[in-house]
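Hi everyone, sorry if this is the wrong subforum. Our group has a chain we'd like a structural model of before ordering constructs, and none of us has done structure prediction before. Sequence below.
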Amino acid sequence: MLEGFDDWVTFRFDEVIDEGGQPNFGDGTGGLEKLVFLSPDTLIPRISWRRQTIAVRPRHGWTANTTYRIELAQGIRDLSGNTLNRGEVVTFTTGGALPTTMLTGRAVDWSNRRFLPAALVEALTPDSLSYRTLADSSGRFVLGPLPLGEWLVRVSNDANRNRRRDGREAWDTVRVAAGQDSVGELWLFERDTLPPRPTGANAATRVDSFTIAITLSQPVDPALSLGPEAVAVRALPDSTTLGAITALPAAQHDTVYRAADQARRAAADSAQADRVRADSAQADSAQADSVQADSVPPPLDRRVVPARPGAAAPVDTSDRPSQLRPVLGNRLMIRVTEPLQSGGRYLIEVVGVRAAGGAIGDITVVLVVPEPRPAQVTDSTAVPADSIPALPDTTAAGRP
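Answer:
Right subforum, don't worry. Here is the predicted structure as tokens:
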């Protein structure tokens, strides 16, 4: 306990420390300012660099009866380029006993389903005190020691490294009860207070004859399931209605309709294979009639067999997220009962589309199905060009 403390906290090194490419003026862009975390304080601390020392203190001074945590993140370098590959933490109080609570957890990028390195971790008390740290290269974090009590832990993807959560950065929160030390996995994704809307020049595209994909401005709630009462697909210009079945997130749509689509493709492949076998049998029969039976080699198997994917390599799941969550994406799939026609235009209306962040809105978009490209047909009756060059005339005038 350092009651009445009013000085700098100094870190001393055995080599001269590199101040970084940017000076430390208190705006958070300085080379050392990006590597120093002082909690609880949301302001950029005052930092003093003197060759082999880095001194830190709050911008408005120390507060009595407060637990302070100062962390030097990985990245401190000396003038020879050697980098400190671990963080250094100093914890002390300006009144009261030193706490022992430690919070541990891991940051997961939900959209890419992978652990998120260097995520910004904040633990907030009910009176808005904030303790901060960074996740390591595997998304793990340890924050503490902290005072005993309830905590709201917020983890965000600090993409611009300004040590605060900006509007378009992915984040997630979890409330931790007093006495609990494990935060678990936090699944980060982008959130928006506005409802989802179609985005891009071709927001609606045809996936196949019975499926339409709509690209939205934010991830769709993976639990969303809309029936025909919420979906309308009308052919333009006569507004003929195509029977809509469902509107589902892409991952859920694939799960529901994968078996039906595979059966339809298998039937088409089987019909194609039957035609190829018939053509091959006819060609083999004609060839057998034109030569002696004992000189004919065994016929080749000319059947068209779909390429069989190779066996999947063993997947190491030891460093995968432990929770099983559905795939998060920003595509909404519309299923219809009547096939979409090439060259057609369709008006699509969906009511009650819910984003992963909770915002709900209605969608109206027009689908334009492109015409098939005409096949290039060559004239089989054209006379091929003569590839033999013309010879010079040896009977030219002036010669015998």
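For your construct planning: Residues 250-290 form the longest helix (41 residues). The chain has one helix and 22 strands.
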